[in-house]
Amino acid sequence: MDNHIRWDASVMVHLDSFRNIDLLEQGWYTVRVRMHTISGITSIPDGSSRRSGHSLPLIDEQTKSYYTKRFQIQFVEHEEDLDEIVTFRFDSNSKNALEESGIIRFDLMFSARPNCPVSQLKSVGRCDLRVGQIGQGVHAFYPVTFVGWYFGQMRTSIHSSTTQMRDQRKDKVLQRIESLKKLEECTNNTIRANEALKRLVEEKAKRVSKKSEDTEDATSSSTIEKSNESAMSRESHEKCLSEWNDFVRMFPVVGESYMQELRIEYEKTKIVYWRDCHRTLVKRTTSDDLHTLTSYLDGRVASTLRNRSDFLKEHPTVDDVTIHRDREVQPLFFEEYLLPHNYNSTIECDQSNLATIDDVHLTISNDIEEDLHHVRANRHNFIDQKRSNDDMRGVHLFVFVHGLSGNIYDLRLLKDFLQAQYRDYEYLICGSIQGQTLGCIKSMGEKIADEILSYIEVESLMVKRLSFVGHSMGGVIIRYALTLPRLQPYLPFLYTYISLSSPHLGSLYSNSNILPPAMWILQRYTNSKSLKQLKLADGANVTESLLYQLSQSKVLEKFKNVILLSSHQDMYVPYASARIEMCRDSQRDDVEGDINVLRVNVLFGRPTEFIDGMIGRHAHIRLLDSPLFSKMFVELYSEYLS
Predict the structure, then answer these.
(1) CA angle 588-592-598, nearest 5°?
(2) β-strands 138-146, 151-167: how paired?
(3) Cα 563 from Cα 597, distance rounded (Å)
(4) CB 217 within 8 A of CB 205
(5) Eight-class DSSP state of 134
(6) Is residue 100 within 8 Å of 110, Cβ to Cβ?
(7) Distance between CA atoms of 397 and 493, rounded to whole angstroms?
(8) Equal fold, 5-271 vs 285-640
(9) DSSP state of 91
(10) Distance CA 419, CA 396 (A)
């Protein structure tokens, strides 16, 4: 486009509802909305509320901000209906106006009093959404998520269109072919959205009386025919504007239903954008060890991925840029999927060059290929969260247990992302062992068991499924707790076990030169029983140690799914120990029964703190405090969680 071509566009943001997931304080909240293009163009918003009884929205022209109505939050899982629409209008004569992207900034504002002046509101959360190519027609759903101490989520749909293009040198319609093609694409996107709205209007009309239905159909048909006849005589930009105006008129009638359709599409496609960061290796458990996995875990392979020109190049139409998708800090998931022992197949690997992922070739027989296809297909299917009649007889309880020197806030972030996705589950973050993790693992396991039983009793829960998440030593404590007689009645309900870098085989073979001496000093001066147990030094011989006894209990076989997350960069917990993995000369793994076992190696980017990188703490802690890791994990492994 030339500089003399003027481009106008509208962006409509539908704020449907706000849901409290884990807000720190009770009080009054509002959401501030602002928008600017990547090139820096800003716009004064225009807004309205479709809910009767709502106060008028506040628009601050000085800061070009829109404020939703204020609402009071007092309880967890409180959901506030907003149903507000805010519109931004932009004009530009940039050469790349039609490819212009925008940033919508959402700020969660808090006050303890309902009538607090705007200038005194405190910003407690932020989410920036990047909307790509707003001039070419965008219609998308996105859950705006405020991460941190004030964890909340707002259901939002975003719609945009070019409304005018004209040549400023001449008082006539633009005729350039290239620009018209892009304008036609925008028009077609809006037409498809209008077709969906018209269908929803017709479905809504069928739910009213026959008389009202006939009147609505006649009116709709007349309007559509008139619109089509008129469109035939309009130029391209006029048709685009006409379609957009039709969309704006129909949206208030069936906007909520249309948002639901967009949400389903979002759920189906959201993990596609993680494909650059996710690699799967299939392993048959009775075959020879596949040492090509080492190439996947090696930092050189991660560097190769990060240095590729096409890495993270593709962006979704709407993307949360608050949680950065930066090649230097993007977590990479390298997954090893263990097939059951009864597969009569082999996997052969070419190990001639392990420097890059492209040099690893897998030859997979048909039955394994079909199984892998099934696994991957499940990940791309929309998870219907409506329970079946069988599920209605009980709840799915997720239990979280922190590790050494941890606290109840360690696993809060992962819990919040899970709760955002699965609102009908029950969540228990155990706090009974906080400040006591240097004690005996057995006594901590007993406290965890008592805490679980107490929670079930107090909340009057009928548990249908029971899943666990343990970080570091917490994963071992969970395994011991499940061997206690008091939890035996719940073993048939065990569903998913997730360990985040847990030392299942102890801490004998550390890759760090700093940590073992430090742990020895800590154990020596605190007389810690748990550290002694992790060193397999709590018995007269290894077979009398707690970890050996746990290995004989076979508790993990009771779960439907076992996910062992580790990081090759984590120097706190030995890599093989976190994966329950033997070396080449040791006994091979064998998976019996109907159990899905995943070993996932997560490689993070370069450490942000020098000390963390030096002592190997960086990856161990990123499993807890990285919003991007938590978001990716919940989305990539939904079939093991739902």
Answers:
(1) 70
(2) antiparallel
(3) 6
(4) yes
(5) G
(6) no
(7) 10
(8) no
(9) E
(10) 12
Question: What is the C-alpha end-to-end distance of the chain, expressed in Å?
Answer: 48
Return the CATH number of 285-640, one of 1.10.287.70, 3.40.50.1820, 1.20.140.10, 1.10.3720.10.
3.40.50.1820
* Interatomic CA distance for residues 13 and 3, integer angstroms: 29
> Length of the chain, please?
642
What is d(CA 558, CA 489) in angstroms, rounded to the nearest whole number? 12
**What is the three-class DSSP state of 88?**
strand
Sign (positive or negative) of CA dihedral 206, 212, 214, 216? negative
Residues 197 and 252: their CA atoms lie apart, in Å, by 10
Q: Give 100-131 pLDDT, tens digit per residue.
A: 889 999 999 999 988 888 888 999 999 999 99
CB 360 within 8 A of CB 292: yes
CA distance 420 to 638: 12
Residue 388 identity:
S
- The CA-atom distances, in angstroms, between 214 and each of 226, 274, 297 are 18, 48, 65
3 CB-near residues (< 8 Å, 6+ apart):
93, 94, 95
Looking at 68-137, which runs of residues are DSSP E strands?
A: 71-73, 79-92, 102-111, 122-131
Cβ-Cβ contacts under 8 Å for 155 (sequence gap 6 or more): 16, 17, 19, 141, 143, 144, 259, 263
> C-alpha 63: how far from its chain's center?
31
Mean pLDDT throughout 358-385?
39
User: If you average pLDDT over residues 547-568, what whole number do you get?
Assistant: 89
pLDDT of amino acid 484: 96
**Among residues 225, 193, 194, 27, which one has the least CA distance to residue 109?**
27
Counting Cα atoms < 13 Å in the Cβ hemisphere of 242 gives 17
C-alpha distances in Å from residue 426, one per residue of 9, 31, 395, 397 = 44, 28, 7, 5
Q: Which residue, among 641, 616, 461, 441, has the nearest Cα to 534 in the 3D structure?
A: 441
**pLDDT band per the 50, 70, 90 thresholds, residue 626:** confident
Strands 278-284 and 332-339: parallel
Selection from 287, 410, 381 nearest residue 339 by Cα = 287
Q: What is the domain partition of the chain in residue ranges?
A: 5-271, 285-640
CB contact at 8 A, 514 and 615: yes
Query: 580 — alpha (psi -120 to 50), left (phi > 0) or beta?
Result: left
Give dist(CA 592, CA 588) in Å, integer. 13
- What would the pLDDT profile of 56-77 be if each residue is shown by its tens digit? 568 888 889 999 999 999 888 8
How many angstroms separate the CA atoms of 623 and 548, rounded?
Answer: 26
Determine which helix (DSSP H) or strand (DSSP E) holds 534, and give its type and residue range.
Answer: helix 529-534
* Adjacent-strand bridge partners of 7: 92, 165
Relative orientation angle of helices 441-458 and 473-481, to the nearest 10 degrees? 70
- The correct answer on CATH 2.60.40.150 for the domain covering 5-271 is yes
Supply the Cα-derived Rg of the chain in whole angstroms: 28
597 vs 557: CA distance, rounded Å: 10
Please list the residues that pair with 79 across neighbouring strands. Answer: 19
Write down the pTM of the prediction: 0.82
| 232 contact partners, CB below 8 Å, separation of at least 6 | none
Token pair for 162: 């070019």
